[in-house]
UniProtKB/TrEMBL annotation:
This is Glycosyltransferase. It comes from Pelomonas dachongensis. Residues 12-135 form the Glycosyltransferase 2-like prokaryotic type domain. It is an enzyme of class 2 (transferase). GO terms for molecular function: glycosyltransferase activity.
Length: 216
């Protein structure tokens, strides 16, 4: 295995993932966050699936393990089903839209190239932006049986605090505006996204006082 870093724009996750994809040599891409881990059998399960269905360009494990850590370092684990539709206000939306690309999505390199990769205008919600573009093309991931990724959730991460929360609010508002006409066709996820935005706004008590990074 070779390691390569994006030293030109290391703080932008979208740019880093695009850089990694440009260096990859396989037919498919697996995206992971730096604090998550791949289950031992997941890659082999994907390889076996693609041998039988090489035309499948979008995969996701049926289950994720989410470990939530306390400040003392102990954690609670929950197994999450990625295939059951999410219900909001009497409507549903595909559950994969709730997850980030680091949760073990697999895309063919060709499909990723057709999408144009991640939009580097987004550095806080680049996952949501790309997954919405995929969703609006009518794509859903083919489920890979078993457990895929262990997602580690810590109370404090590198991208918390008022400034980061406010920048996330700014980007999500920008995303909602830019995709408004498409989001109207998916009212359940639109409602979910607006509810999430309200929660973020409530955590960013000084939102009006900030000059957002790169947007002032």
């Amino acid at each position: 295995m070779s390691l390569s870093g994006n030293f030109e724009n290391p703080a932008n996750p979208a740019a880093c993932r695009n850089y990694g994809a440009s260096k990859a040599r396989g037919s498919h891409l697996l995206f992971l966050d730096d604090d998550d881990e791949c289950h031992l059998d997941f890659i082999q399960s994907c390889v076996s699936h693609l041998k039988n269905f090489p035309e499948h360009s979008f995969l996701l494990a049926e289950h994720l393990e989410i470990r939530t850590y306390s400040s003392q370092g102990d954690h609670q684990s929950a197994l999450v089903d990625t295939t059951s539709p999410v219900s909001v206000l009497g409507d549903t939306f595909p559950p994969f839209l709730k997850f980030g690309m680091g949760c073990g999505f697999v895309l063919s390199r060709e499909f990723f190239r057709e999408l144009g990769g991640f939009d580097v205008e987004y550095s806080y919600c680049e996952d949501t932006e790309l997954l919405l573009r995929i969703h609006f093309q009518g794509m859903v991931p083919y489920p890979i049986p078993g457990q895929g990724i262990i997602v580690h959730r810590h109370l404090e991460t590198r991208r918390t605090g008022d400034m980061n929360t406010c920048n996330r609010v700014f980007e999500l508002e920008k995303l909602v505006r830019s995709m408004d006409s498409s989001l109207q066709k998916s009212p359940a996820f639109h409602s979910h996204l607006l509810q999430h935005l309200d929660k973020l706004r409530s955590r960013c008590s000084r939102v009006d006082q900030f000059s957002f990074e790169g947007h002032n």
